[in-house]
Structures are given as C-alpha cells and as structure tokens.
Amino acid sequence: MKVLVTGATGNVGRLVVDQLLGTGVQIRALTNNPTKANLPEGVEVAEGFIGKPETVKGTLPGIDRLYLAPYPKTAQAVVDLAVEAGVTRIVDLSSSGADDEANADPASWWFYAVERAVEGAPGLEWTHLRPGEFMLNALTWADSIRAEGVVRAAYGAAAYAPLDLQDVAAVAAKALLEDGHHGRKYAMTGPESLSKIEKVRIIGEVLGREIRFVEIGHAEARDEMLALGYGEAADWLLDGDARMIGHPQPVLSTVPDLLGRPARTLAQWVRDHADAFR
Asked: What is the CATH number of domain 2-131?
C-alpha cells in the first residue's frame, strides 16, 4: 500500500508522516520545497502543492490512499485527479465548524467545501477529521509569556477542550490504514474543557513560574488581533468566545475510543513545547 500525504511539512501533515512510519506502508510526502522538507529517511519526497493541482497530478500514480490537507479552492480538482489515478480512500482534515459552514453562504465555505468535494467522488472511501481548538493556538501567548509572564486576552472564562495535533495525526493514520472508517465524520476534542485562565495556570505550573492572566475588553482584544493580521477572523473568534461563557465545550471520547488510550493533556503538550515559552 502507498499513501500520499499532502501538506507533508504542515502542522498536521508532518505528524501524519510520523504516524505512518514503521507501519509497513510506503509513504510519499508532497511538499512545495523538497530541499528544506527534512523528512525522515525512507519517505519518498515529491514536489508539489495542492493549491496547484497540475503539480499534484504526477505524484498520484501508484497511490492507494491520500491524506488531504484543507485547501478549498482546488480541493475538487485534486480529488478528481486522485480518483482518476486510482486512489480509493481519502482522509481529509476538516473542522468542528463544518456543519455551521454548510448552513452559511457558500462563498464562505472552507472546510465544508473540501468535505463536499471528497464525498462527491464516485466509488471513493472517505473520512472527515473534525477537530476543534488546537493546543498549538497557545503559542500566540508565547511572546508575552517570555517577556512579561503575562497573558492578556478577552473572555478569560470561555472554556474549550483543546486538542493536541499528535492525536489528530494518530486518528488520521488509523483511518488511512484500517477499514471501518468510511463515511465517518470524526469530531474530536482534547480530554479537558479549560478556560483561558485555567490554560494559563497550567502553562505556568509546567514551566515552574507564575504567569498572570489579565482580562481585557472585547474592543481592545479586537484591535490587538487586527494589528496581528487576524482580519475578519478577529470578530468570529471573539464572538465565539463570548458565546462560550457559561457554556464550556463538552469533552468528546472520539480520540480514546479510536486510539485505545487517553487523549493528550495540555500539560503534556506544554512540556513538549516548553522552549517556546522560555
């Protein structure tokens, strides 16, 4: 069996490559910069980018299964090429918000556009991965933690169940390798529903230093996010935080049910990324 991992040097794709190592499958990794990819020995590196389907076509012969990174503008073209080349299974990275997107203006579709392209392919087995918030997002606090030992944010009581990308990649590999996942939409969370205040406390405990959480208002947070380049996402994210006050995100058992082990905790993630906060 040969698997093509698109976005193989991205946050999730790179971890999917790691999860597939040692499983006995042949791995072809798609990257737009092979010379700097630094992929493990034994992985076949192919140059290409799913945003340019013409560069993907030549990497598909011989591929049985495909991990598809989310790139809606060309998702349909890439899926069509994959089916034409004989790919029989696609596992795509989607989002917990895909159903909300489906009820919105099609011009705003992102993850749902990828799901539609995959589901519409004739004779194809598919699995959608629908993670929620990533623990990786805490890195946006790293500069202020390093410099001041402070996190300034709005809606400190907004509670989500953040997920380690390692778990997303492990579920992706399982769906690629094993049967029984066709037609599944795997919504995933981490093992704990945590407010921003609680996340900051955990980061401080792991680092062994006091980190203060300073609550700021909606308008101030929006201005800071716009200055950082969030654009329209600033309003979407802050409005989402506001809705979570008093309504913590429920913890789902998807990861432990599929992997036979607990989902990784925020404390574990912080230990793995401690240097970023020091």
From this structure: 3.40.50.720
Cβ atoms of 158 and 246 closer than 8 Å: no
pLDDT: is 246 or 233 the higher one? 246
Q: State the Cα–Cα distance between residues 71 and 118, nearest whole angstrom.
A: 12
**pLDDT averaged over every residue in the chain:** 93
The pTM of the whole model exceeds 0.90: yes
Instruction: Classify residue 147 as exposed, middle or buried by CB count within 10 Å of its CB (0-12, 13-18, 19+).
Output: exposed
Domain with CATH 3.90.25.10 in the chain: 135-161+191-250+264-277
| Separation CA 238–CA 178 (nearest Å) | 39
Please name every residue paired with 185 in a beta bridge, in sequence order, or none if there are none.
Answer: 128
135-161+191-250+264-277 to CATH, choices 1.10.3660.10, 3.90.550.10, 3.90.25.10, 3.20.20.140: 3.90.25.10
**Residue bearing the bigger pLDDT, 236 or 134:** 134
Residue 209's Cβ-side half-sphere holds a number of Cα atoms within 13 Å equal to 12
